[in-house]
TrEMBL record:
InterPro entries in the cross-refs: ADH-like_C, ADH-like_N, ADH_Zn_CS, GroES-like_sf, HCHO_DH_non_GSH, NAD(P)-bd_dom_sf
EC code: 1.2.1.46
Cross-referenced Pfam families: ADH_N (PF08240), ADH_zinc_N (PF00107)
Alcohol dehydrogenase-like N-terminal domain ranges (all copies): 37-155
Origin superkingdom: Bacteria
Residues annotated as domain Alcohol dehydrogenase-like C-terminal: 199-303
Annotated GO MF terms: formaldehyde dehydrogenase (NAD+) activity; zinc ion binding
Cofactors that this protein relies on: Zn(2+)
Enzyme class: oxidoreductase
SUPFAM superfamilies tied to this protein: GroES-like, NAD(P)-binding Rossmann-fold domains
Record-given protein name: Glutathione-independent formaldehyde dehydrogenase
Similarity remark: Belongs to the zinc-containing alcohol dehydrogenase family.
Alphabetic keyword roster: Metal-binding, NAD, Oxidoreductase, Zinc
Length: 399
C-alpha cells in the first residue's frame, strides 16, 4: 500500500482566479465503494488547456473549489486488485475522456460519450464542469479508474521521460487536433483551413501536415500565435484585418475555398476585421460553411457549451447560435462535433512521436512550469501567450 499522504492541486476559486491548495490524497474509491479497477498516479506532467480557461473566465457553471486538470501523464504508484496489465512504475498517458470500456459507446470506440461514468449525461473528464465530478489532475497525485482500459503505457520508461514534452500532449490536444483533421477529411494533397492558433489549433495544423495536406492555412487574431504557425510551414491569416476571407484564401490557393475546415475556436469566437474585440459565437461555424467547398467536411473539436452564463446574447447563454445552416445544407457539408475519443488515436500518435515523424511540442511551443507557477500560467495563457503551459508538479522533468 502507498503511504503518501500529502497532495496539492490547482483549484478554481471563481471567475478569473485559481490557486494552489492542499487537497486530499487520492484513494482507490468511488464514493463509498472501492475502486479496484483504478490506479493512483504520481503526476509527471499535467497541462493547462484552453477548455480550462473557459471555466476560469467564468463562462461555465463550474463550482468554486473544483480541482482542475484533464491532461495528465503520470507514473503508477499503486494498483487496485483488479488491475491486470499494469504495474507500479509504469509511465502512462491518461486520456482526458473517462471511459468504462463496458458500455455500448465504449464498445463502439466512442469513449468520449461513455454511458456509465457521468450520471448527468454521456461523457466524463477529470476536473471539468458537468463531466461527472471527477477530481482533476493538475495536482501531485491523482486516481484514474478503469485503468487497464483507459491508460496508454509507454513502452520504455527512460524513453518516455526523454520525450515527455511531446508525449504529455497525447492526453488531449494532439489527438483532439488530429481528430478534427480526420473528421474534416484531411488527407494527402488536401487544402485545409484551421480556425484558431491556440494549442489545439497548432496541434491540428501539425496533424494536417502529418496526414499529408498540401497547404495548411491558420487564422487567428494574435500575431505571436500566427508566427508560431508559420514557424513550421503554415500559411496564416490575421483575422483583425478587414477583407473577405474567401478572397484572402484565393490569394493563397488560387481558389476561394478549401477542401477541409477545422474549428479550433469554439463558443468564445470573436468578429473578424475591425470589430474583432466583439464576441460573435457562430462566426467560425458560418465561415466554415462559406469557405469549405461543396461536398467538403467540417471538423469541430472547438468547445461549444449548453450553458454560457457570460454570453452577451440570451440565446447564446443556452447554447443557441445564429448559424446560416441553410448554406451548409445547400453545399452538402458534413459536420463532426463533440469530444475527441482519445483512445482512437493516442497509440498511433505515440508511435509518430517515438519514431520522430512529428515534433508536436515544438509546434505548440511547450513551456514547462512548476505547480506553484500555475496561476501565472493561467494568466499568461488567457492573455494570448503563444505557448502550451505544461505543469511539472514534482520538478522531475526539470531535474
Amino acid at each position: 500500500m502507498n503511504i503518501q499522504q500529502s497532495n496539492r492541486g490547482v483549484v478554481y476559486q471563481g471567475p478569473g482566479e485559481v490557486s494552489v491548495e492542499s487537497i486530499a490524497f487520492p484513494e482507490l474509491a468511488l464514493g463509498k465503494r472501492r475502486c479496484d479497477h483504478g490506479v493512483i498516479l504520481k503526476v509527471l506532467t499535467t497541462n493547462i488547456c484552453g477548455s480550462d480557461q473557459h471555466m476560469v473566465r467564468g463562462r461555465t457553471t463550474a463550482p468554486q473549489g473544483l480541482v482542475l486538470g484533464h491532461e495528465i501523464t503520470g507514473q503508477i504508484i499503486e494498483c487496485g486488485r483488479d488491475v491486470e496489465f499494469l504495474k507500479a512504475g509504469d509511465i502512462v498517458s491518461v486520456p482526458f475522456n473517462i471511459a468504462c470500456g463496458r458500455c455500448r459507446s465504449c464498445k463502439e470506440g466512442n469513449t468520449g460519450i461513455c454511458l456509465n461514468v457521468n450520471p448527468a449525461r454521456p461523457g466524463a473528464a477529470y476536473g471539468y464542469v458537468d463531466m461527472g465530478g471527477w477530481v482533476g489532475g493538475q495536482a501531485e497525485y491523482v486516481m484514474v479508474p478503469y485503468a487497464d482500459f483507459n491508460l496508454l503505457k509507454f513502452p520504455d520508461a527512460d524513453q518516455a521521460k526523454e520525450k515527455i514534452r511531446d508525449l504529455t500532449l497525447l492526453s488531449d490536444i494532439f489527438p483532439t487536433g488530429f481528430h478534427g483533421c480526420v473528421t474534416a477529411g484531411v488527407g494527402p494533397g488536401s487544402t485545409v483551413y484551421i480556425a484558431g492558433a491556440g494549442p489545439v489549433g497548432l496541434a491540428a495544423a501539425a496533424s494536417a501536415q502529418l496526414l499529408g495536406a498540401a497547404c495548411v492555412i491558420v487564422g487567428d487574431m494574435i500575431p505571436e500565435r500566427l508566427q508560431q504557425a508559420r514557424s513550421f510551414g503554415c500559411e496564416t491569416l490575421d483575422l483583425r484585418e478587414d477583407g473577405d476571407l474567401a478572397e484572402r484564401i484565393e490569394q493563397i490557393l488560387g481558389e476561394p475555398e478549401v477542401d477541409a475546415f477545422v474549428d479550433c475556436v469554439g463558443f468564445e469566437a470573436r468578429c473578424h476585421g475591425c470589430n474583432h474585440h466583439e464576441e460573435q459565437p457562430a462566426v467560425v461555424l458560418n465561415s466554415a460553411m462559406q469557405l469549405t467547398r461543396a461536398g467538403g467536411r467540417i471538423g469541430i473539436p472547438g468547445l461549444y457549451v449548453t450553458e454560457d452564463p457570460g454570453a452577451q446574447e440570451d440565446a447564446a447563454k443556452v447554447g443557441s447560435l445564429n448559424m446560416r445552416f441553410g448554406l451548409g445544407w445547400a453545399k452538402s457539408h458534413a459536420f463532426f462535433t463533440g469530444q475527441c475519443p482519445v483512445m482512437k488515436y493516442h497509440r498511433q500518435l505515440m508511435q509518430a512521436i517515438l519514431f520522430e515523424k512529428v515534433q508536436i511540442a515544438q509546434a505548440v511551443n511547450v513551456q514547462m512550469i512548476s505547480l506553484d507557477q500555475a496561476p501565472e500560467g493561467y494568466l499568461d495563457f488567457d492573455g494570448g501567450a503563444a505557448k502550451k503551459f505544461v505543469i511539472d508538479p514534482h520538478g522531475s522533468v526539470a531535474a
